[in-house]
Amino acid sequence: MLKLGVSRLALTATVMLMLASASQTASADPRASEFKLSNGMDVVVIPDHRAPVVTHMVWYKVGAADEPHGVSGIAHFLEHLMFKSTDKIAVGEFSKIISRLGGQDNAFTGQDVTAYHQRIAKDQLKTLMEMEADRMTHLRLTSDEVATERQVIIEERRSRIDNNPAARLDEQMNAALYLSHPYGIPVIGWAHEMAKLSREDAMRFYKRYYAPNNAILVVSGDVTPEEVKRLAEETYGQVPANPEVSVRQRPQEPPQPAARRVTLKDPRAGNASFHRYYVAPSYVTAKPGQAEALDLLMKILADGSTSRLYRKLVVEDKIAATTGGDYSGYGLDSGAISVYAVATNGDLQAVETDVDTVLDDIRKNGVTELELERAKKGLLADYIYESDNQANLARRYGWAVAIGRSIDQVESWPTTLSKVTLADVKQAANDYLDARHSVTGWLLPEEDDTAKGAGEQVGQPVVHTRS
Amino acid sequence: MIAARPLRLSLARTAFRSLSAVFAAAFAIAFLASLSSPANAMKIQTVKSPGGIEAWLVEEHAVPMMAMRFAFDGGSSQDPNGKEGVANFVTAMLDEGAGDLTSRQFQERMEDLSMRMNYEEAKDAFYGNFETLTQNRDEAAKLLKLALTKPRFDADAVERIRQQLLASLAYAARDPDKVAQNQWYADAFAGHPYARPANGTEATVGKMTGADLEAYRKRVFAKDTLKVVAVGDITPEQLGKLLDEVFGDLPAKADLLPVAKTDPVPGGRQTVVDMNVPQSVAVFGMGAMPRRDPDFMAAFVLNQIVGGGGFASKLMEEVREKRGLAYSVYTYVYPYQHASIFSGGVATRNDMMGKSLDIIREELQKMADGDVSQADLDNAKSYLIGSYPLRFDTNAKIASQLLGLRMDNFGPEYVDNRNAMIAAISLDDLKRVAKRLLDTHNLIVTIVGKPTLEQTQQAKKG
Asked: In this structure, what CATH number is given to the domain that contains residue B290?
């Protein structure tokens, strides 16, 4: 039989109940534990005893938005370089050792966080913690390693951005969305700055931000808080705190008095598409309940084939092949709203007019009671289905704590969500679907005849075969 | 759909160290499914419904929900000539109205029940995925049954989905990764159904009718090829009833077009598709041994060493770690029902594509020549054996893994025997299979971009 545990199930059961009865009062039973090591490192433990495996993550409270000006991409570059060597681990061995132990590892960098994560059989947890604690302060880098890995991130940029028209537009729209805040700079970095990133840039960033008092350990899976605490004290607990770690201060946005527009022509764009971003508050910066209202607003407006945008543009007016959008509320300093529509026949003006009609209607008339109930139910169901997966849980808690939310806030999310009213959603629409805080982007499948050297006709790809 | 609402991550705004996990997901799901098993003893029951439908069941009553995955033989290789893309079209139409429910009513009903239902087609099978909360199970099952037995394929819904499929075809036609993949299959399997684009073409999708969709459904959705796995909060008796409710009205026998056994074309080939992109994408590959071949397991372990093991693999070491030529380079072995392949890919700036491919060929050749060590083998085995429980830690994953086994006609006991099979592979096995598998003269390569390839051509002459 599968080993069944109960500790992580209490909350799920409570949320289920809310889903069944649309209860406004049920509160979530806590299931994650949180404590601090003596050196200031936060620890979150989420037990799930169904399988003898664990997800282990270390989150650093630093991301691309903390980079010095002109050194874009260094947070992500350092993340790559963290897999090189330490006094104890030879070059390139980190991932190989984990692989030999039957584990999987990876890492990612966002604007506000950098996270290293592994999934592994439970009995290997301590080794993993020793290795991760070791590279927190003992990274070794040679200039050759740095030069080689820099080529890798430049290839990564080509794969993710340069080869992808939608990603190229996204980069331009973000740059236009923020007038001063570094969220306008891509996480992976601007190509010309990436080309100059050095070993010294990486080490400077590392020494400043990588420390136990700037990190959060998250372990989910077949563990108890007690055993994680013991192991964490023995490993991470031995790393000295860095007194220079301080609260992050980024340049903040000035008032945004004017809507902006960006048009990108790329022959490889496929159908013409319409995109719109708005600056909005995040779960960190919003007033209580406001971010939840934005989640519900965007679910109703843009999520799936029952959404307002899809109904209007795809089903009724048949001018879009598909539509979508979402609210990303997990930024430290700001959130964002995005909507998009892919035109069926290339008429982006008609698409834009239709999108604005839908947005204006929601600002003027709000949403219906039935829509709100369905949206709540949908988001709660997503929350439950996601909770089936311990890696998702580790991410859910880790990201939230890394941007300063409490375990309590994470676990009371279903309750807060269920309390959002029709008036809250309408208010959110009025406050944040504000053209002055927006960027509108058009992606056109055309030659960019203004760009030097971009005159080559792409047309149908030409195939040459050699047997 | 990615729906960790409180944690919505935007990939465009997040950069990862490695894409290997993404590639594994894209290319190797069914394959991994058939090669893994949980460390803890997981009880797999075989359930037969009163109506005679069989399923595997893993009971897990701790969370009041269940996941069910099922498949019909067929997939896109059952698309008739001239109707390429019909299976894919059907996958997008099964929540677009059924029975008395219009598209909108059906989708709102799904939301009211908090149920999840989606479909995907592979070359050999049509897959369904169903998840429900226990409290809504009976109602959700009725809706699932409607989708499978009485989809409406209304003209306006067909037209809507057609526009979506055409838009994604237009995008894919300029996406170097997708073009490279499609071209590789076209080259490797010319004349066979596997050569055809699973998503169809502008011409075939443009002409598809509701009648075409219904004809495919009637031929393929049938009890004799149905395979079902359920995991979660449901007893064998309850599952028996659910199976009869959902699948009982389907025809007894599928009416499938014959699909010939085949192999990728031998002798080696290289195709370049010109595209004005800063980075070229290459897909390479050749034939491999079938799933039931005694050497298959050794080929699986060999792949782990060559390019399936992420940072622990030879290609990643040589192409990325030592030389910084690429962000991603990978290989996999995939046993289709009618052909097996060993394949992989690399993306690198245009002027380095020739060099990258030379290195890849060289590494494959070295393996074929027996340049593989006991340590390589031990490391690969230790990962493959040690990591197997990681594939069984959620209801949804267990269901996928077990369905993979059923699709390859293995019994539940496979789960218990799998690690011993891997452990039994010797260095001699590995060398023998490397020699048999990795004949680089048979390598089929497709490249999309503006690659510089002189080095490759010289290497080939030599």
From this structure: 3.30.830.10
